[in-house]
Amino acid sequence: MVLSAKPTPNTWCPGCGDFGVLAAAKKAILELKIPTHEAVLVGGIGCSGGIHNFIDINGVHALHGRLLAQAVAVKLANPHLTVIAAGGDGDGYAIGMGHFMHAFKKNASILYIVMNNETYGLTKGQASPTSRLGFEGNVEVPFDAILTALSIPSGAFIARTFSGDPKTMTAVLSEALQFNRDHRGYAFVEDLSPCVTYNDTFKEWREKIVNIEKLPGYDPSDRSAVFRLCSETMNAGKIPIGVMHRPKPATEAAANPLELKLLPDNIGPALADIQLDHNLPAYQKLLASAA
Amino acid sequence: MTTPAAQTSPQPTDAERANRRPTKELVDVSVIVGGQGGDGTLTVVDLVARYFRKRGLYVYTSRNTLSRIRGGHADASVRGCRDPRAAIKAKADLLLAFDQEAIDVVRSELDPDALVLYDSTTFKADFPNSLGFPFATMVGSQLGQPIYKNTAAYGAIAVLMGFDDAITRQVIEERFKRRGAEALDKNLKALEIGRSAALEVSSAVNRWSLPEGDAHNLILTTGNQAAALGFVVGGGRFFAGYPITPATEIMEYLMKYLPNFHGVVRQGEDELASINMVIGAATTGARAMTSTSGPGLSLMTEGIGHASTAELGILVADCQRVGPSTGQPTRHEQSDLAHLAHLGHGEYPKFILSPGSAEDCFYLTVDALNLAEKWRLPVILLLDQALCQNASTVPAFDLSKVKVERPSLLTAEQVAAHETYKSYAFAPNGISPFAPVGTAGVTSQITGNEHDEWGHVSVNPVNRQKMMEKRMGKLTQARDDLPRPRYFGRKEARIGLIGFGSTSGPILEAMDALDAESIPVKYLQARTLFPVQQETLGPFFDSVDLAFVVEHNYTGQLARLIREEMPQHHSKLRSILKYDGFSFRAPDIAAPVREAFHGAKR
C-alpha cells in the first residue's frame, strides 16, 4: 500500500454546521462502497471549501467560485470518478452564480453541496447573497437557491437539508451520489449549515424548518407543485427542507447526462490512449481530411 | 532567394500597342476582392487560391472583415507567388470591387498599375484603370439568380490574368461538386458568362501571364487549424473555450476532430469557466487546452496562476488582436506579450512559446503539450490574428516529426512500486512525478494554496521558501528543453532582426529585398519568449552592431522585455513597430533597415 495524502486535522470552529455535512458525506461514501481513489471532492474557497482536507478521498481545491467548472471537467475527463463539489453560499451564489445556473444546463453527473450559513464566515461575518434584510446592513433581497433550482428546466436531483438533522442528510447525500453513479445527471443539495461564530442560526432554523415531504400535495417529480409548496412555506415565515426534485427515470431519456452524451464509449480524455504509434492510421486520416 | 519584380514582355509592335497593353509576366501576384459582407468575396478568393495552387504557386490569403455578420465593407486578398511568402504583398495587382467603397478602402494598397475589375450593375468605378461588367445583371438574366456573380467575376479574372482554361474550369468543378448537380451546372454557366464578357474586351486589356511554379504537395492552412491538428496528434483530449475572435476556429476545428479520439470539447459559459474546466481536466491527467484572445486572457489570468501553483500542465493559446478591451476584434496586433510575461498576481513560472508560421503552429503545439505536462505548469502558445486566420501553403504535416513524451506521469503500476506518493514531492529538477487524480492505490490533494509536499495547505515559512524555489526554479531548469529560435540570413551581417509570430513572413520577404540590394541582414525568429532566452539572444547581439525588434505594438514589448533581462545590449536595440491593426508589409521593415545600413556607411 502506497502512503499518499491523508486527511488533515479539522480547522472549523467547534459546533460548526459543516461538521454535519462532513460526517454525512463520509457515511454516504462508505455506504456506497466507493473506493477512495475513485472519489474526488472539489472544494471552493471559504471555511466550507476546506472540506476536501478532512475526508479520505482525492481533494481538489478550486479557485473561489470556480469549483463547479473544475468539477464538471473532472467528471468529463474521467467519467469513472465520483465527483462531489462542495463550498459555501458566497462561493456558489455570489462569485460563482454564473456557474451555478449553468451546472443545471450542463447536467453532468456530479453532486454539488452548498453549505449555506447566510454569511461570509472566513472573512468575519459580512452579508452573503442569502443574508436576510438588515444582516450586517444588508439591503438586498435574499437569494433562494431552491426556488431558483426548481425554476430551471432540468432533470436534476434537488434537495435541501439541515445540519441539525444528520440522519436525513446522510440519506439525501447517499441518494444523490447514487443518482450520479447511475449516470442520471446533476444533483444539487443545499445544506443549511449555521456559522456558530458570526451567524448562529441553529435554534432559529430548527424552529423554522418544515419538511416539505410531509405536506399535502407533495410530489417530488412535479417541480411546479414543489415550487408552490416552497413559496407558501416561505411566505409563512418557515424554511422548507427535504427532497425538492426527484425526477422519474422515464422522463430522463431527453435529459441524458453530459458525460454520456459526449462519451458514449465511457473512456474519456484522461484514459484515452494518446501514444502516437497507437493512433497513426487515425491521425493520418485526420491530416488528410483536413488538408 | 530574391523577389523578382514584375517583368515586362518584349515590346509589341505599334499596331499591337494600339490594340493592347503590354503583357506582364507575374511571378508574384496579389488579388483583392472587396464588397459588402455577404457579397461572397471569400468565394472568389478561394477560387483564385485554388487556381494558384494547381499552378504550383505558393499562396497566402488574408481577410479584412468587420465585426458584424452581414453588411459593412469586407475584403480579402490572395497572393500567388513562385517564392514561399507568408505575408500580404505590399501592393495589389488587381481589385475585384462590388462597390465603390471597396475601391476607396483599398486604394492605397493598389499598385499604381493595378486594374480594378468591378460589377457595373450598380455603380461606375471612380478609378483610372478600371474595367466594369454588370456581373449581377448578366448572371441574373441568364441564370435567374444574381448570386452567381462571384463565379462570373472569377471567370473574368481568369481571362484577364491569362489562366489556363481547363484548370480554371476544374477549380469550379472541385469547389462546387459537393453542392449538387444544379449548383455545379449554374456555376459552370456563370463561369462562361464571365469569361465570354472578358474575352470580348481582352485584346484591349489582357495584361498578364502567370508562369507555373514548382510548389506542389503543399497544404493550405491557417495557424488556428494547424494548432488544432497539433493539439490532437500531441495527445490533447480536452478543450474548453468561449467564442472570441480570432481564436474561435481552434474550438470549432476541435469540435470536429476530438470526438473521434475519446476527446471532449466544451464551450464554457465564459472564460472563467473555460480555464477552470481545463484545470479540472488536467487534474485527471488529460492533456487540456483553451484558446482565447486579450479580453478572455484577462479573465483567465487568475486561473493560469492557480494552475502554475497547483502544478497542473495546461495549454493556453492566446490569439492576439487589437486591445485593450474590445479594441478592434478582427484586427491584428501583438500587444499581449508584456501582460503575459508578467502575468497575474503573485509569482509563478510559465513558458510562452511563439510559432512563426502556420507550419510551426502544428509542431510547436505538440512541443507545448509535452512541456506543460513534463514541467507541470501552464504553457502559453502566443499567436496573433494574422497567424491565426490568414492561410498559407505549407508542407504537409509530418507525423514522423511528432513525439508524445510523458516523463512526469506515473501510472498505477509505477506508483505501486513507491512507498509514498506526494503530489508535490521536492525533486532536484523541480518536477514532482504526477499520479493523476483517479490513479488506483493513491489519493492526492491538488491545491492553489501554498502547500507542503502532500498538497496540504501550509503556512510554514521554510516550506513556503522551498516551494517557491522549487516552482520558480523550473524557469532555469527547463532552459535546455525550450524551443530554440530559427535563424535566417547572412552570418556575416552586422544588422540583426528579431521577431516573433506572423512577422516572420514579412521579415523574410524584406530580407530578400535587402539581399538584392546587397544589404546583409540576419534574423532571429524567437520561439520561446518567456523565459527570455539569454543563451540564444546573447550570442546574436554579440554578432551584430544593431538589432531591430519587429513587433506589432506601440511600446515595443519584446524589446522592453529583452532590455529588462539583458540591459547590457540596450544600446544595440531598435524597434520597428506597427499598431494600426494591419500586418507588416515587407517594405515597412526593409525601409528602416536600409536607412540604418546606409547611415552606418556614411
Molecular structure report:
The complex is a heterodimer of chains A (291) and B (602). Chain A is an alpha/beta fold and 291 residues long. Chain A has one domain: Rossmann fold, CATH 3.40.50.970. Chain A contains ten helices and ten strands. In chain A, the strands form two sheets. An eight-stranded mixed β-sheet of chain A has the order 2-1-3-4-8-7-10-9, with helices on both faces. In chain A, helix 1 packs across helix 6, helix 3 crosses helix 4 and helix 5 runs antiparallel to helix 8. The relative contact order of chain A is 0.14. The model of chain A has no long low-confidence stretch (mean pLDDT 96). Chain B is of the alpha/beta class and 602 residues long. Chain B has three domains: 210 residues, Pyruvate-ferredoxin oxidoreductase, PFOR, domain III (Pyruvate-ferredoxin Oxidoreductase, domain 3), CATH 3.40.920; 181 residues, Rossmann fold; 118 residues, Rossmann fold (3-Layer(aba) Sandwich). Chain B contains 21 helices and 24 strands. The longest helix of chain B has 25 residues. Chain B starts with 6 loop residues before the first strand and ends with a helix. Chains A and B meet through strand 2, helix 2, helix 4 and helix 10 of A and helix 8, strand 11, helix 10, helix 11 and strand 18 of B. Strand 2 of chain A pairs parallel with strand 18 of chain B, so a sheet runs across the interface.
The CATH architecture of the largest domain in chain B comes to: 3-Layer(aba) Sandwich
The number of distinct β-strands of chain A equals 10
Tally of domains of chain A: 1
Could you list the spans of chain B in which at least 5 consecutive residues all have pLDDT below 50? 1-19
Task: Let me know the CATH homologous superfamily of the largest domain in chain B.
Answer: Pyruvate-ferredoxin oxidoreductase, PFOR, domain III
**What is the global morphology of chain B?**
globular
